[in-house]
Amino acid sequence: MAKGKDVRVRVILECTGCVRNGVNKESTGISRYITQKNRHNTPSRLELRKFCPYCFKHTIHGEIKK
């Protein structure tokens, strides 16, 4: 089985608010989520609104490279 032929791939979503503003002094890190997407249906980068425990609000989490 070839590894590059999988239709569903695992992606990492990272908080764009924490990355853009830099990590706040009181926060300890950057929020990340792991999910899957269908490569054929969604060829572009995935963006979802998720809760960031470091920003204490719902922000846009964008797909990053592994």
From TrEMBL:
PANTHER family: 50S RIBOSOMAL PROTEIN L33, CHLOROPLASTIC, LARGE RIBOSOMAL SUBUNIT PROTEIN BL33C. Keywords: Chloroplast, Plastid, Ribonucleoprotein, Ribosomal protein. GO terms for cellular component: chloroplast; ribonucleoprotein complex; ribosome. Belongs to the bacterial ribosomal protein bL33 family. This is Large ribosomal subunit protein bL33c. Its main location: plastid. The keyword ATP-binding does not apply. It is found in: Plastid, Chloroplast. GO terms for biological process: translation. It comes from Acer morrisonense. The keyword Transcription does not apply. GO terms for molecular function: structural constituent of ribosome.
